[in-house]
Write a structure and sequence with these properties.
Number of domains: 1
Helix content: 25-40%
Order of helices and strands: EEEHEEHEHHHEHEHEEHH
Radius of gyration: 18 Å
Strand content: 25-35%
Number of strands: 10
Strand order of the largest sheet: 6-7-8-3-9-10
CATH class: Alpha Beta
CATH architecture: 3-Layer(aba) Sandwich
CATH superfamily: P-loop containing nucleotide triphosphate hydrolases
Length: 267
């Protein structure tokens, strides 16, 4: 994008999981650069490596080899606490499951990252209410999850991801638990956020969701097999493997399965 700067840059990223005595390769020499303000979809079938790539982009996991920089910070050189601080400042997460706390009003759900960032209580509530207004839920701030529709719950989760005013919104299958109409509403919201200047990276296996992005990166067997604008990807989707039968997913260590807990790690 003209006038934009590089937000994240990966060079020759490799990830190998050790499962007992077996080494399981997940990424094989991935190089990728994303500029500020881009709207990117990363697609592929199960076992393609897209979830592992998401974990590394989100600073939830570290590469086995290669160099990863986000906003000029070389992630390879940072301590766990420094990674947590960078993650809390720069990245907002949206997952397929909403991960909301039962019997907790929406505004408290949204202010949770600010609590871990030691933001003053009054300021935190003000920012939480602003984030809810940004996703069209100002009138639902006091509602608990059981009082909200699936789409509204995902909007709360998006507001929670936005409340720290991150540089990057990283969404993993954000419409996977929603019906078609509600999923459309969420994707429309993402497009609004992109127009407002937010950098978006969506991880998905759904070609229709991917085509809403401006750039589509397709993965297979731990490598990037195509990187193109959405219009080109829409034409060549079948050739890129989006409609292939899904292979068995790679085994993943328990630590990676629990990565969502790191979203609000104290800094």
């Amino acid at each position: 994008m003209a006038g934009s700067s590089v937000l994240l840059d990966m060079q020759n990223i490799t990830k190998v999981y050790q499962m007992g005595k077996t080494k399981v390769p997940a990424l094989d020499g991935v190089s990728l650069s994303i500029e500020e303000g881009e709207y990117v979809a990363i697609v592929g079938t199960s076992g393609s490596g897209k979830s592992t790539l998401m974990n590394i982009i989100g600073l939830l996991d570290s590469p086995t080899e290669g160099v990863f920089q986000i906003r000029g910070h070389r992630a390879n050189d940072l301590t766990g606490r420094q990674l947590a601080d960078l993650r809390n400042r720069e990245i907002g997460f949206v997952f397929q499951q909403f991960n909301l706390l039962a019997r907790t009003p929406a505004w408290r759900q949204v202010e949770l990252p600010l609590f871990y960032a030691n933001v003053a209580r009054g300021t935190a509530r003000e920012q939480a209410l602003e984030a809810l207004a940004q996703v069209g839920l100002a009138e639902r701030a006091d509602h608990r999850p059981e009082e909200l529709s699936g789409g509204q719950q995902q909007r709360v989760a998006i507001a929670r991801a936005l409340v720290n005013r991150p540089s990057l919104l990283l969404a993993d299958e954000p419409t996977g638990a929603l019906d078609t109409r509600t999923g459309e509403e969420v994707m429309t919201l993402f497009e609004k956020l992109h127009r407002e200047g937010l950098t978006l990276v969506i991880i998905t296996h759904d070609q229709e969701v991917a085509e809403r992005a401006r750039r589509v990166i397709t993965m297979r067997d731990g490598v990037i097999i195509s990187d193109s604008d959405a219009a080109v990807a829409a034409v060549s989707g079948d050739q890129n493997g989006l409609n292939d039968a899904a292979p068995a997913p790679l085994p993943r260590p328990v630590a990676i399965e629990q990565n969502e807990e790191k979203m609000y790690e104290a800094v």
